[in-house]
Amino acid sequence: MAFDNEVELRELPAEQQELAIVDDILSLLIGVSGRYITFRSPAHSTVWRRSISVEDALIAPMWISPTLAQMANKILPLVIMHRRVEYFVTVYAGRQAGVVSQALCAAINTILKEYYDSISTIENLERTSTDTDPYTLQQLWYHLYPNTQMFERLNEGYTTKANGVPSTASETGEFPGDNGMDNSEVEDSDEDSKEPSELFVVRGGYMLNVISEMIRLRGGDASTKQLYELLLIKASAPFLQMLDHWLRTGELEDSKPGSPGGEFMVAKRADESAMQSLIGPETSESEFGDNLSGDPRHVSFVSVPNLTPAFLRPYAEKIVRTGEYLNILRACGVDLRSLDNPDIGGLLKQQQLTRQIDQAYLRANQALLDVLFKDGQMMAYMGAAKRYLLFETSDFLTHFLDQAKLEMNRRPEDMSTNRLQSFLDLALLNPASVSHDDPLKDIVEVTIESADLIETMNAINMGSSAATASQSLASRRGSKDVPSGGTFLSKSVASDDFLSGDQFTAFHLQIPFPYTVVLDEEALDKYTALNRLLLALKHTEQNLVASWLVNLKLEDPPVEAKGLSGKEAKNESIRRSVFLKIHTTRHRMVMNIQQILYYCFWDVIEPQWARMAKLMKAATTVDDLCRIHKQHLDQIFHQCGLTARKVPKIMVELLKRARNFFMYVNKVTSSKSKLLRIASTATSQKTVSGKLLAGINAGSLDPDVQYAELQETAVMLDRLDRYWNEQLVIFLSALNHYARKFEQSYLTLAVRLDCYRGGEGPRGR
User: Where is this region: Disordered (predicted)?
Assistant: First the structure.
């Protein structure tokens, strides 16, 4: 390439060529193209976002002395590094980059000012040089070497990738990392644009993390560490002001993602998806923390890991909780100025910062504890959860089950929530019930859940809300037909084998704010799951007992054998054995269900609740309060067998088989059943059965037909009893298995159930 200035430079003597190159380099060092060496791209071009070579950045004359070219090539990288730093300051000093980046750029401008002063000094030396003592490239390199080291450190920090690993010389660096700016918005060919247009991702706490990572990686060099620490102190000043405002008021200053803010380490949960897209897809949803409550007055906040400075990561949870509790206090009408939180200030002193964060955290916790335990309301609502969801005093439950018996025996889709709620209100308002004078009885309501008990347990054990299982039974509930797979019953009773409504009925508590901080949605989901299991067990127990009372009225006294013929005596003997089988099987079912209830109530819930109440009263922070409640509730959930994969399924199957049994027994012992058609005309007046059937034609009571019907009933009862025992054996095996691996308390229940197990075979373990 031949340019006029190249020809002119080539014609100059070597000494004058060196002076001309020195003059051009001094111009380039302050961002101005020289006479012979010029920039290829303007200052606002996006090519300066990447590390580029001297050949790609500058246009230099080809006809230059090799010695001078070698010396110039040592200095020209400083020109490129300065240009990149200038571009960074120009872009990140804007409002869209955020206040942390602006503070960083202000600190860099201070360094650049010192750099320009040194260039002015060097330029003065060059101007005052003489022909006998000229200012050479070697002298220029000597005076610029300290600045070269400084700009190398600055560029190394700017080319650091978002994960904190510095790029090597062979890598193509960008400001700060490939995530620093959105390349899709600006093309490199857009060199004629007047203003740089960028989308900023590395901002706020993320920018501080980049600097902190460079301190960690390059802290061995004292001068480098001093430079990075200076930048970190200056850049963190506005971030610490945001932190101070958050710890004092619990308010975020314009922190919505995409706005000029969005720099702070805390964000509203409503902005979680936008914040996650802002900081990159590698951040999982679980890193954002937990939602404590679904109350609209409780604004949930989350920590954003990539916007959390490294020096604040150990205290991220405390910082989030402090501001969140301040918001709760404000919603409760507490004057936050009375808390007198300490001033963090703008100095980055780790020990002092830690102490002030702890003080703000403890004061917010103490103030919220005073609100929660004022007039004993927190423990009152905890008592309501135990009383109405775990049935501590369940006299109202007996009245409710008596009235709602028919409703709960229906299919879930045929049940009416309004009728169930009316029955519950009548039971709670019963003057004979202890709940009559309870001021919290109005927060109890009954609902019909959309997912069955097993799916709800699985959703809770996987950490999801119980509402996520709401669609799983839609197809099964859409049709009232019996599943094609059939049941273990014959066709005569297959219609009774459908999903019972008692397993979908649940009690709920409407917990007011701010007590939802402890009794949050996750805790209430677990209470509801426990409530559904206990309610289904109590309802099944009541149905079995009610069936026994009905059978007592229908069972005849012994009939003298001499008053009956041979076939009639044989039928009477079978009838007696059928009633005995009904009583025996029903008794074992009732005792087994009562043992399960006893284990849940007295071996698990009562001891755990007593320990939990004692620890909750001694809690010093709200986090401790929530942790104690969650741990003991999880322990109750675990010891009741609801976290074991097989135990809930087996218990539901036991309830299903008990229900099939008492429904079949009710069917065959009704006033029109076959069991009552066995008495002969001669003995009909001696028995209750005969009295009920006094008007029936004797011709319809053929002894052979009666015998066949009684035999069919006896076979069905044996089958029901065998299926119950088989399922009970499976339950005992599961309890023994989980007792050996997870929870030894299951052995207590297994021993009790084994005492009431029927059938043949060895007992015990």
Answer: 161-198
